[in-house]
């Protein structure tokens, strides 16, 4: 199967799994929020923030390095994975102890600390499943990833409903939900262990510590960037918990979880694009340039309408999905809506920098984003309350975007941003205007509004000649290998 066909196949898997799994993920968050209430949901969000940051510290870029190295030479898969596995178990064991100690020091009840320990085990199970699933990514067999993503969410939703609800066998909904995460994540790990062992290669613990340490050193810039990036996504929660308490964290998290759900889209799309970017980065620069510009155009066309839709529907979505005690989250979501464009573009640029072996650009942009976000939080939260955390997030993403544009020029890749963005941005603005006359109040109103909004946007793309029927036909032909030519740079920057 050709490289283009692999990308097309994996994009199809990703879209299908993200469409179903994304909805399930959001339902899980809604269920947890409503079962726990504002204060307990704030504690749960705080635990998630701690464990997810520590997961990235344990990973430290190793899984992305697996994809890049195995994609270059698949015959070394067993050797690479064996040594990575040894290193991964050492790092994850250390992180488990650290999470336990951090939870003991920061959480003020035994129940919360026990929940933190359970979630630490759950997150580390996810980490090891990601290590194994990276082999599927490197071989561009992402159907396994797509299937497991959806199956995991179904199991987690069912267990969270059972163990976190009134019929729970646990004396605390928080503990029940955390156990649900643990069981679902362990099943996910078992699935990928069996797939890799039976389908690709049997992995045994390696003993080449020099090679393992060399991989770790190469992963440091990527890993540091990922840790800082994840910490940036959680810094608002951490600062709010100290300055305003669990209730403010719960309100902010209700809005931010919506944005995080949308953030899964660019992340998932980058998974099949990254192996292709890595291959092209080692070859023809012109082909890489064209492929990146075409990918960037697709990201812009997705990000701008989602930004407009989230902004205009913020209050309606919060009122629809959350209890009355979360009502203040609507104003926060309206501010956070503008971070969606940055999250999409910044994600693609990050993977491009790694593919080009310019990890330091990724690291510097992540550092700038974190510093600006944290500083804005510290300044604004005392002035405007929880609203300051939303503005801090927006300032951080804007800083990342500006720095990434500067670094993009260093990679000798030129993008005509005005030409690329003005038409889809204007179309998105026009699609928001009907909401001034009619805002949805019920679930079915919101469904109708959503369908109308994105239908009008799609019509607008053709009406303003962002692309034509011929462009769609040519793109389909290219990805199904009916054309062998690489997309031109002019197509990507139009």
TrEMBL record:
Record-linked InterPro entries: Poly_Biosynth_Transport (IPR050833), Polysacc_synth (IPR002797)
Taxonomy, superkingdom: Bacteria
GO cellular component: plasma membrane
Keywords, in A-Z order: Cell membrane, Membrane, Transmembrane, Transmembrane helix
CDD domains according to UniProt: MATE_Wzx_like
Phylogenetic lineage: Bacteria, Pseudomonadati, Pseudomonadota, Gammaproteobacteria, Alteromonadales
Name by which UniProt lists this protein: Uncharacterized protein
Cellular compartments annotated: Cell membrane
Transmembrane segments: 12-37, 43-67, 79-104, 110-130, 142-162, 174-198, 237-256, 288-312, 332-354, 361-383, 389-408, 420-440, 446-468
Recorded topology in the membrane: Multi-pass membrane protein
């Amino acid at each position: 199967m050709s490289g283009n066909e692999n990308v097309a196949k994996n994009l199809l898997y990703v879209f299908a799994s993200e469409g179903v799994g994304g909805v399930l993920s959001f339902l899980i968050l809604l269920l947890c929020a409503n079962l726990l209430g504002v204060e307990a949901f704030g504690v749960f969000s705080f635990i998630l923030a701690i464990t997810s940051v520590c997961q990235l510290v344990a990973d430290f870029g190793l899984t992305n390095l697996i994809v890049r190295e195995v994609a270059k030479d698949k015959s070394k898969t067993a050797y690479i994975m064996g040594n990575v596995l040894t290193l991964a178990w050492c790092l994850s064991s250390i992180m488990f102890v650290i999470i336990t100690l951090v939870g003991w020091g920061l959480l003020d009840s035994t129940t919360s600390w026990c929940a933190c320990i359970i979630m630490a085990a759950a997150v580390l199970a996810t980490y090891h499943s990601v290590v194994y699933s990276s082999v599927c990514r490197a071989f561009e067999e992402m159907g396994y990833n797509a299937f497991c993503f959806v199956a995991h969410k179904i199991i987690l939703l069912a267990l969270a409903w059972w163990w976190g609800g009134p019929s729970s066998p646990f004396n605390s909904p928080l503990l029940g939900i955390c156990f649900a995460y643990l069981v679902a994540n362990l099943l996910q790990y078992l699935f990928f262990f069996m797939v890799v062992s039976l389908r690709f290669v049997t992995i045994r613990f390696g003993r080449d510590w020099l090679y393992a340490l060399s991989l770790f050193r190469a992963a440091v810039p990527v890993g540091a960037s990922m840790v800082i990036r994840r910490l940036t996504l959680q810094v608002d929660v951490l600062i709010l918990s100290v300055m305003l308490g669990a209730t403010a964290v719960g309100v902010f998290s209700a809005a931010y979880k919506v944005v995080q759900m949308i953030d899964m889209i660019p992340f998932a799309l980058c998974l099949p694009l990254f192996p292709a970017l890595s291959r092209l980065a080692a070859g023809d620069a012109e082909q890489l340039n064209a492929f990146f510009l075409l990918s960037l155009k697709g990201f812009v066309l997705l990000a701008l309408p989602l930004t407009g839709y989230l902004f205009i529907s913020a209050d309606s979505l919060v009122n629809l999905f959350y209890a009355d005690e979360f009502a203040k989250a609507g104003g926060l979501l309206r501010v956070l809506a503008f971070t969606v464009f940055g999250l999409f573009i910044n994600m693609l640029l990050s993977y491009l920098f790694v593919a080009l072996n310019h990890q330091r650009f990724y690291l510097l942009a992540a550092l700038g984003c974190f510093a600006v976000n944290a500083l804005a939080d510290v300044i604004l939260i005392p002035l405007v309350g929880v609203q300051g955390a939303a503005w801090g997030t927006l300032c951080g993403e804007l800083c990342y975007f500006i720095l990434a544009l500067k670094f993009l020029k260093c990679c000798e890749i030129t993008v005509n941003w005005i030409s690329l963005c003005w038409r889809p941005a204007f179309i998105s603005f026009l699609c928001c205007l009907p909401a001034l006359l009619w805002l949805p109040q019920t679930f079915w109103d919101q469904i109708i509004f959503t369908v109308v909004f994105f239908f009008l946007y799609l019509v607008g793309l053709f009406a303003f000649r962002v692309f034509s029927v011929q462009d769609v036909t040519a793109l389909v032909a290219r990805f199904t290998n009916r054309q062998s030519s690489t997309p031109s740079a002019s197509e990507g920057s139009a």
